[in-house]
């Protein structure tokens, strides 16, 4: 296994992780552009653009794109986040040239045909409706919006229905021209592929001179607050949290360790105290999400209306106790959980290609597994206690969705 990186003259970075004993290749194009690069009136454009990439190019119809990859048993998909849009595939090693051709085709030659846009417009509106009808999904949008109000970091990835209905072909093209420049892109592959072969495949399919205008994302400004929405549901869904840690912060791994100790599994403090001892929930967990310049730390739980007051009391009590009562045993277990998760993900070519691309886009370098493990192992109990103490005294964000009549005031 070997990792090699090449930067083309236009700034496009290509990285491969060669694994000779597997029969597949996972590859994709990752772009440092997402929801946070949108304006109020174009919110949803990054996700709309991702959908339209599969709806026809100058040489393939939407059906031909789907059939081309599935005829060889391959897989093709995409996703949009607040900071990244990705287009990726997984194929048998012999079909790598086809996968590169298709991915480079949809990136460079999508036609954004009006008739396809009208159909996809309705598909996205259906997707928004499905999300709105899924409380343990939509509450995360509410949480993000409450934490980062009146700014792109708080807007929903899918966008509002009004924007989707009015989204024009020119809006998609303008967003792509502005943000899809090669210095903000990484093409990554992991699996049974040689670096020089992959470089040639990319070069042979690179036909467009991308825009190279430097682009700066608007800075995220955490505010926090409370949003409570009453709905006739069986369960009350709650999210309680604080501003988290950005990718480049010294406490990046500390935040992950604390989230794992607090609510990262069946042995975690919250799971044991809230579910096992008291039976207040079916699901409860903690998470630490990082962005370029900010982050979110949160606790999600689903409970009944009558248990909501006790649930919030227990969560807040556990947060306070965790600032000074964590044990070396808990910390070591969390370290093992995180390290095991990282090492297990290395057995997947898809995870490996995604990891390489995201590291280059975020840190401008590849970070070895050994370096990550070393940093995790170096974390001390005092560091986690100090981080927890600073976190739980900061301004909070609280969102609740469902039967809220017995929900206490949370601040």
Primary descriptors:
Cytochrome Bc1 Complex, Chain A, domain 1, 2 domains, six-stranded mixed sheet, five-stranded mixed sheet, 15 helices, 44% helix, globular
Which helices and strands appear, and what pairs or packs with what?
Blueprint (H helix, E strand, L loop, with lengths): L1 E6 L5 E6 L5 E8 L13 H8 L9 H9 L4 E6 L4 E8 L3 H14 L4 H19 L2 H13 L13 H6 L2 H11 L5 E7 L3 H10 L20 E6 L5 E8 L8 H12 L5 H9 L3 E10 L4 E9 L4 H14 L6 H18 L3 H15 L5 H10 L2 H11 L4 E7 L9
Parallel strand pairs: 2-6, 7-11
Antiparallel strand pairs: 1-2, 3-5, 3-6, 4-5, 8-10, 8-11, 9-10
Structure described in brief:
The chain has 411 residues and is of the alpha+beta class. Helix content is 44%, strand content 20%.
How would you describe what is shown here?
With 411 residues, this protein is an alpha+beta fold. It has two domains: 2-204, Metalloenzyme, LuxS/M16 peptidase-like (Cytochrome Bc1 Complex, Chain A, domain 1), CATH 3.30.830; 225-402, Metalloenzyme, LuxS/M16 peptidase-like (Cytochrome Bc1 Complex, Chain A, domain 1), CATH 3.30.830.10. It has 15 helices and eleven strands. It has helices at 45-52, 62-70, 96-109, 114-132, 135-147, 161-166, 169-179, 195-204, 252-263, 269-277, 308-321, 328-345, 349-363, 369-378, 381-391, and strands at 2-7, 13-18, 24-31, 75-80, 85-92, 185-191, 225-230, 236-243, 281-290, 295-303, 396-402. Strand 1 (2-7) and strand 2 (13-18) form a beta hairpin. Helix 1 (45-52) packs across helix 7 (169-179) and helix 9 (252-263) packs across helix 15 (381-391). The protein starts with a strand and ends in a 9-residue tail after the last strand.
């Amino acid at each position: 296994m070997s990792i090699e990186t090449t930067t083309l003259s236009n700034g496009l970075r290509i990285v491969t992780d060669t694994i000779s004993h597997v029969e597949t290749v996972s590859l994709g194009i990752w772009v440092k552009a997402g929801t946070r690069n949108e304006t109020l009136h174009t919110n949803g454009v990054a996700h709309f653009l991702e959908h339209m990439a599969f709806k026809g190019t100058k040489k393939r119809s939407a059906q031909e794109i789907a059939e081309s990859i599935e005829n060889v048993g391959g897989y093709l998909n995409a996703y949009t986040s607040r900071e990244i849009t990705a287009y990726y595939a997984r194929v048998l090693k012999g079909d790598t040239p086809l996968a590169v051709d298709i991915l480079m085709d949809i990136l460079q030659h999508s036609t954004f045909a009006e008739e396809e846009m009208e159909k996809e417009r309705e598909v996205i509106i259906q997707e928004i409706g499905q999300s709105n009808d899924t409380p343990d999904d939509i509450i995360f949008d509410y949480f993000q919006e409450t934490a980062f109000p009146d700014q792109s970091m708080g807007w929903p990835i899918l966008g509002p229905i009004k924007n989707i209905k009015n989204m024009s072909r020119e809006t998609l093209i303008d967003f792509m021209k502005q943000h899809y420049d090669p210095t903000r892109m990484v093409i990554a592959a992991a699996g049974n592929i040689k670096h020089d072969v992959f470089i040639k495949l990319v070069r042979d399919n690179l036909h467009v001179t991308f825009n190279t205008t430097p682009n700066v994302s608007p800075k995220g400004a955490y505010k926090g607050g409370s949003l409570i929405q009453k709905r006739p549901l069986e369960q009350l869904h709650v999210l309680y949290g604080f501003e988290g840690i950005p990718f480049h912060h010294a406490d990046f791994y500390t935040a992950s360790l604390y989230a794992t100790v607090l609510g990262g599994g069946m042995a975690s403090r919250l799971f044991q105290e809230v579910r096992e001892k008291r039976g207040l929930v079916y699901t409860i967990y903690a998470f630490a999400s990082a962005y370029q310049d900010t982050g979110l730390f949160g606790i999600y739980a689903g409970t009944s209306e009558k248990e909501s007051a006790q649930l919030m009391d227990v969560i807040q009590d556990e947060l306070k106790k965790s600032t000074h009562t964590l044990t070396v045993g808990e910390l070591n277990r969390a370290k093992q959980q995180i390290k095991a998760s990282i090492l297990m993900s290395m057995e997947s070519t898809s995870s490996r290609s995604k990891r390489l691309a995201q590291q280059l886009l975020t840190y401008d370098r590849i970070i070895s597994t050994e370096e990550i493990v070393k940093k995790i192992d170096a974390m001390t109990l005092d560091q986690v206690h100090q981080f927890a103490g600073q976190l739980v005294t900061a301004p909070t964000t609280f969102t609740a969705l469902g039967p809220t009549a017995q929900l206490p005031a949370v601040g």
